[in-house]
Prior knowledge:
mainly alpha, two-stranded antiparallel ribbon
Amino acid sequence: MKKWGFLAGGLLVALLLASVVSNFASSHPDGLDSSLREGCTFDANDEITGGSCPAQQEREHEVGGPFADYGIAGLDNDFLSTGLSGALGVLLTFAVAGGAFWLVRRREPAAGNDTGAERTDPAATSGG
């Protein structure tokens, strides 16, 4: 039963981090975004105003989807959108991982072997 308490506690901590703490993450670009922006100049609205950098070829998400840009499409409240998308991401990841572990879990051996005969210790029957 300790196993289930540990899993539930881990899930609750992950949900709390993804739904609440993620809203307070830095809005500055991470390492990849930062390296793509090197060589360009930006205005106060973070729009490229000059220079030459790979970020100039940036386009809208080609795939899109309901969770694009760390939010939920159609929700106007940024705090709620980010928190809800984080919580749904955690639940989806937990469900997929749990299903995968369930599929590959170790099963208890059957009561007897395939032939129906009892197992014997080879050392005990060798007379040695």
